[in-house]
Amino acid sequence: MKYELYYWPEIQGRGEYVRLALEEAGAAYVDVARGSRGTAAMMKLMDGRGTPPFAPPFLKAGKLVIGQTANILLYLGARHGLAPKTEGGKLWVHQLQLTIADFVLEVHDTHHPLGPSLYYEDARPAAKKRTAEFWDERVPKYLGYFEGLLESNGGAYVTGRKLTYVDLSLFQIVAGLRYAFPKRMKAFESDITGLVGLHDRVAARPNIKAYLASERRIAFNEQGIFRRYKELDA
Amino acid sequence: MKYELYYWPEIQGRGEYVRLALEEAGAAYVDVARGSRGTAAMMKLMDGRGTPPFAPPFLKAGKLVIGQTANILLYLGARHGLAPKTEGGKLWVHQLQLTIADFVLEVHDTHHPLGPSLYYEDARPAAKKRTAEFWDERVPKYLGYFEGLLESNGGAYVTGRKLTYVDLSLFQIVAGLRYAFPKRMKAFESDITGLVGLHDRVAARPNIKAYLASERRIAFNEQGIFRRYKELDA
Inter-chain contact A98–B53, Cβ cutoff 8 Å? Predict the structure, then answer.
């Protein structure tokens, strides 16, 4: 079975967490909207009856259509050895992924504090305030939490010796913050040396390394979640 | 086994989605921080080693400590008949719950657009703008989606004839919007007659009815997710 991933073709966005899992697993998949069927195929599934997803990304796996990033990873994790096998382990890793999802929403809010449907330019003063709070309070709280988990288990990965989809997502968080806020992140990285090491270990894994060097990896840009706006990186 | 729910004792907040599920299921549970052990017991678990939750609510179920609202409901749903039994059904209901979680975050952002750590009073002008966008764009999009699901399956509940934890959460969404934005919601309700009917059906279920009339149901207030600020309900 070949998976079908449905996501916006021009951005990493939330689809990237799924792409990283599929790539690490070496799973066969089509990134549908980037192919000849385009976003029209994606819209068609969202307008359908039955179980239409609220928003991309979603994954077609045989007859199943699975939406919500963390939910897709819950499914893929169990099938491709990217999550523990025990019920408690599965729930723990999923819990961590949901915490990452909350953080991703807060990243998005730094440039869209007045709502997702407005243009960045119309919310710039509010974006500056929100970004200041984000770096003063939220980044230390979230990344400090994951740094603490890495420290306390002493392993190479967040749950210990074995990589899970959460590690792939944390790689993306570090990479994204480096792209969007190069100055702030540079100053902050000495507080999260564990996560920086994790980022490097993930980037060096053969499948991920090949993916990052390929055209399948879309470059960061200002339509995605992580956006580089100079005035927010004071 | 008696569940232990850990959540802030003064508010409904995100804990309420778990309380509603436990109550509907008739499950034995203690709302720990509301008892003599107080929030200190909650903080202790969050500071612990192993699998400390990032934030409340979390549920202690035997040896498991499960965090993130939707993750707790995933667990409870499977154990108490509040979710379908098939894998596809489980994932679908969880996906809907994660969409509700996104909406709840946006509700919170209406009064905290510049970040969760600021006081409402310091973000009032931004809150007005965010709330306008919320009602113009986000409420119709999210609630229209769930209204469409109800219409297309023709059932009493979102997945058909049988109640799931998603229905309990949608009850809370309707009740919360009515509390926080009485004028706006009154004008909007004719667009979501299906959800209003769902709200009433959930409220009339014996266990939920008894719960809502009990002291276990905390009243809405201005420390929770749904807050009534007159200037935001224009």
Answer: no
Q: What sign does the dihedral A123-A129-A133-A136 (CA atoms) show?
A: positive
For chain B, list the domains and their CATH numbers: 3-79 (3.40.30.10), 87-205 (1.20.1050.10)
For residue range B30-60, what is the model confidence (pLDDT) as tens digits? 999 999 999 999 999 999 888 999 999 999 9
The residue in chain B having the minimum alpha-carbon distance to the alpha carbon of residue A144 is B54
Could you report the average pLDDT of every consecutive run of 10 residues in chain A (234 residues)?
96 98 98 95 90 97 97 98 97 98 97 91 93 97 97 89 97 98 98 98 98 98 96 93
Contact B151/A at CB under 8 A: no
A130 close to B (CB below 8 A): yes
Q: Is B85 exposed, middle or buried (0-12, 13-18, 19+ CB in 10 A)?
A: exposed
Torsion of CA B113, B118, B121, B127, to 10 degrees: 0
Q: Do B114 and A129 touch (CB under 8 A)?
A: yes
Q: Which of residues 21-80 of A touch B (CB under 8 A)?
A: 49-55, 63-64, 66-68, 70-71, 74-75
Name the DSSP class of B232: G
Of A115, A138, A142, the CB nearest to B130: A115
- B35: tokens are 């008892």
The alpha-carbon gap from B226 to the nearest alpha carbon of chain A, in Å, equals 17
Can you say whether residue B53 is alpha, beta or left, with left for phi > 0 and alpha for psi between -120 and 50 degrees? Answer: beta
For residue range B219-231, what is the model confidence (pLDDT) as tens digits? 999 999 999 999 9
Using a CB–CB cutoff of 8 Å, tell me whether A232 touches chain B: no
Q: A67 pairs with which residues across the strands?
A: A58
Residue A30: how many CB atoms within 10 A of its CB? 14
Tell whether B145 is within 8 A of chain A (Cβ): yes
What interface predicted TM-score (ipTM) does this complex get? 0.97
Closest chain A residue by Cα to residue B136: A117
Q: Give A6's strand partners.
A: A58
